[in-house]
Amino acid sequence: xxxxxxxxxxxxxxxxxxxxxxxxxxxxxxxxxxxxxxxxxxxxxxxxxxxxxxxxxxxxxxxxxxxxxxxxxxxxxxxxxxxxxxxxxxxxxxxxxxxxxxxxxxxxxxxxxxxxxxxxxxxxxxxxxxxxxxxxxxxxxxxxxxxxxxxxxxxxxxxxxxxxxxxxxxxxxxxxxxxxxxxxxxxx
Amino acid sequence: xxxxxxxxxxxxxxxxxxxxxxxxxxxxxxxxxxxxxxxxxxxxxxxxxxxxxxxxxxxxxxxxxxxxxxxxxxxxxxxxxxxxxxxxxxxxxxxxxxxxxxxxxxxxxxxxxxxxxxxxxxxxxxxxxxxxxxxxxxxxxxxxxxxxxxxxxxxxxxxxxxxxxxxxxxxxxxxxxxxxxxxxxxxxxxxxxxxxxxxxxxxxxxxxxxxxxxxxxxxxxxxxxxxxxxxxxxxxxxxxxxxxxxxxxxxxxxxxxxxxxxxxxxxxxxxxxxxxxxxxxxxxxxxxxxxxxxxxxxxxxxxxxxxxxxxxxxxxxxxxxxxxxxxxxxxxxxxxxxxxxxxxxxxxxxxxxxxxxxxxxxxxxxxxxxxxxxxxxxxxxxxxxxxxxxxxxxxxxxxxxxxxxxxxxxxxxxxxxxxxxxxxxxxxxxxxxxxxxxxxxxxxxxxxxxxxxxxxxxxxxxxxxxxxxxxxxxxxxxxxxxxxxxxxxxxxxxxxxxxxxxxxxxxxxxxxxxxxxxxxxxxxxxxxxxxxxxxxxxxxxxxxxxxxxxxxxxxxxxxxxxxxxxxxxxxxxxxxxxxxxxxxxxxxxxxxxxxxxxxxxxxxxxxxxxxxxxxxxxxxxxxxxxxxxxxxxxxxxxxxxxxxx
Lengths: 188, 645
Description:
- The complex is a heterodimer.
- Chain A has three helices and nine strands; from the N terminus they run H-H-H-E-E-E-E-E-E-E-E-E.
- Chain A is an alpha+beta fold.
- Chain A folds into two domains: 9-49; 62-174, 3-layer Sandwich (Rieske Iron-sulfur Protein).
- In chain A, the strands form two sheets. In chain A, strands 1-9-8-4-3-2 form a six-stranded antiparallel β-sheet, with no helix packed on it.
- In chain A, a hairpin with a 3-residue loop joins strand 8 and strand 9.
- In chain A, 19% of the residues are buried.
- Chain B has two domains: 32-268, Cytochrome Bc1 Complex, Chain C (Up-down Bundle); 398-629, no CATH class.
- Helix content of chain B is 59%, strand content 1%.
- Chain B has 27 helices and four strands.
- In chain B, strands 1-2 form a two-stranded antiparallel ribbon.
- In chain B, helix 12 (284-292) packs across helix 13 and helix 18 crosses helix 27 (619-629).
- The longest helix of chain B has 33 residues, at 177-209.
- Classes of the chains: A alpha+beta, B mainly alpha.
- At the A-B interface, helix 2 and strand 3 of A face helix 3, helix 4, helix 5, helix 9 and strand 2 of B.
- Chain B: InterPro entries: Cyt_b/b6_C_sf, Cyt_b/b6_N, Cyt_c-like_dom, Cyt_c-like_dom_sf, Cytb/b6-like_sf, Di-haem_cyt_TM.
């Protein structure tokens, strides 16, 4: 057994002939052992893009929101919580908050529903009775009562939702979210 | 390009660094025996990659840890692969650590001037062992939960400060959310940071003293790049292949049932690299010494391992003495040898020994697998995992809980043939089901109904073993009117011309239980059965009508379509007669029968030989056992079974 201690021995050591093949194989092996964990890890991280969301097609997508008696014809819009079933990664909620809507009743008793998310960047808009308009607290997006934008901040008006009145006075809304920041209304 | 690299070199000096890193001379040339350090560094790199991935999907709390690991294992892209790699790479790291240590000690590489690096290596070994310990708990499954509790109880047994240390580690007096947050912070934050720090020092000091070379005569000197790097790379590739092989072979790491402090787990064992210590603590003499020295558990679990480790750490100093190096090598071999033997013993006793303990262990492991697979099946069912966590899925699952309750309260009287040997006393009632064979229920089956109808005396023969005040009632049942009915009508029922009618009667009764394979109340066979039940008229001859003695309110399909279950018809076929056969063999019937058999079965005047359990069982227990006996539990639809890992 011989021992070498001094790091200075580096310079004296006469390197043996380096052959290209050895280097090539070494790099190849190094590449493979690095790639394997990275590939599986990469796939794992890309899960949200690779895994299709399983949609539950059991219901027609409409959710009960409230009674028509809670609205006045031609009166101010009111805010309602939307609750429903939700799958959040591993948790299955049979009933949980999934969003908010504004309902408004016209003089002819027809009901309009808006998703309360601002189409600008997703904050929840407020109904301001003094301005008689929807105003977003984040960037001052402003909308008239029929949902049309009244300044240039949001790219489009408030998102309307399909409404049905069932059993005389039950308001059912097909609740959907739409991508923020685009002029078009694209469901997410 | 060249100018850019020149610029970069001028600003950073990277060429010197690369030169320093790659052109390390290796006296005597590259050798396979030098690869261990590199394989360990590589395995750590794998752990960092997979660990970061798992981190992105893991949630450390008592109601989300198991659930998020379940989601990783069963729902995410490459989830089981990434988790499997992380699990098996941890095992590989322990093996490589031992090999690295052996190589260093046998080659004498720990001696001056490399003492400090040897100690740094030992610190790294401790960090890796703690990483293993903390990681084992994170899935919050029965296996990790109970194994880790033993480890923290050992910490608590340390003299003087033990209880405080235990509370600090657990984040409180018992296991819970803060145990997980703390273990996770240690596992993913503190320990890896320490590991990187000490690994940096370890490599720095290693380079300072250069490789401890074993140079044989006539060998040419080599350089790290590419000769040794190639060997290191090939070794890493072999390690990776082993990890991937294990991952694919076992379909990733196991996930047993969610942790439940109320549910004993008789197969609690630490990871294999702690198994020697586990076995050591089982010896009686260890406990006796512990008591004699007033150290208790701490003697075997902390003091003795501590002394052994100290001798290991003192090796560089021992080596100064004559024969010191030889002592060290001999010491290492003996400690590893004894640990190996203890590990082997523990392994043999658990998995192969035909002893009561061995059998219990294997049974417990099997149950743990089964419960784990069952929880996964329930989680994948339509109900999914509720916000309150997956432990409730199993706690409210009749297939899991029913047999346990039955074993405790019911089996000693209702013995099945398969369990006769477990009891010294004779059965006092017909066998209903064997909790060990839980998906096969004899009670209320079609065979059961046939046997009651045509061989009542034989079916209930075990009642004759009842003594004391219930014995009289038992006797009356055995000599009662149903016995007479069975005796006098069996021949007519089983006559070949009446085969279809007999089947129809059985199906009608079976449908009342609403079991998964029961025929619809609207099916022709069941309707024909109802006719026979009401009139007793058969194709050839007749029997005494069942409605003459029994209440029967038959089930029909829910006309509103609101319920999947069948509902009771508007009108009963017969009322106010006992025994009640409405819903016979179904959940509600069984529940009434178990809770208060006298009221449901015999009324004021009839005979009942069974004690009521309403005041012994909770409502939840009654429900679980009844639903199990009535086969009222979730069954995985055929073709949807998933792998049970």
